[in-house]
Design a protein that fits this description.
9 helices, MetI-like fold, 0% strand, 81% helix
Length: 237
């Protein structure tokens, strides 16, 4: 086993750098497709949760509670092996993408529900007085105002989604962590554990750190803007 300070281990990682780049590409592709699915599901169930109809709220609540209170790895394994044993396997990457999308869709739904819930009832009443239907009310009045509440935690969900692609390792995926494991256990590439996992971690960091920093800066900026607005209103009164 070659350690962190082994020149031979680092040379091996450099020679096979395409393995890590391929893993990063697969991780990015899965994350992007899963994000689109999670946004679709999150918007759907978030609107159902705030639509005022009890049965739609109930359906949304069941989805959110079921997904949030069971592990992603369990959901991933269930979907993968259920499809495999039924003879309708979609492949590891597609199965992983769907699992990630469904899992994070529940969290996106809660983000959207909280954002819509932060808008005062007067805005809803004003939209109703203008004769807007539900879709028009959300599109023209409510969602534009709630976007500043929604976006910072949404960016955090993107970061979490990218990191959670590592769960595909459990079913032998082609993501960054899975290919790193294949590299360190390969017949011709095995042994360079410390350098390989360090490089893998740095690649995740390079992608995730700017996004998490952006979310933090965005949230701080919104808080400062709200404080300035509140100060201005006090000065006027």
């Amino acid at each position: 086993m070659e350690g962190l300070f082994s020149i031979a281990a680092w040379e091996k990682v450099w020679i096979y750098r395409s393995t890590f780049l391929l893993g990063l590409y697969n991780t990015g592709r899965m994350a992007l497709l899963a994000l689109l699915l999670s946004l679709l599901l999150g918007m759907l169930f978030g609107l159902m949760a705030t639509g005022g109809k009890k049965y739609l709220q109930g359906i949304s609540r069941v989805y959110v509670e079921l997904i949030q209170n069971t592990p992603l790895i369990l959901q991933l394994c269930f979907l993968y092996y259920a499809l495999a044993f039924s003879g309708k396997s979609l492949g590891i990457i597609v199965t992983g993408t769907i699992s990630l999308g469904i899992y994070h869709g529940a969290y996106v739904s809660e983000v959207i529900r909280a954002g819509i819930g932060s808008i005062s009832k007067g805005q809803f009443e004003a939209a109703d007085s203008q004769g807007f239907n539900y879709v028009e009310k959300m599109y023209y009045v409510i969602l534009p105002q709630s976007i500043k509440i929604i976006l910072p935690p949404m960016v955090n969900q993107v970061v979490n989604l990218i990191k959670n692609t590592s769960c595909l390792y459990i079913i032998g995926g082609a993501d960054l962590i899975s290919l790193t494991y294949s590299f360190v256990t390969g017949a011709t590439t095995g042994g360079a554990y410390a350098p390989a996992y360090l490089v893998s971690g740095l690649l995740f960091f390079v992608v995730c750190f700017p996004l998490s920093t952006l979310a933090g800066m965005w949230e701080d900026s919104l808080k400062k803007r709200d404080r300035r607005a509140a100060g201005g209103q006090k000065a006027i009164s």
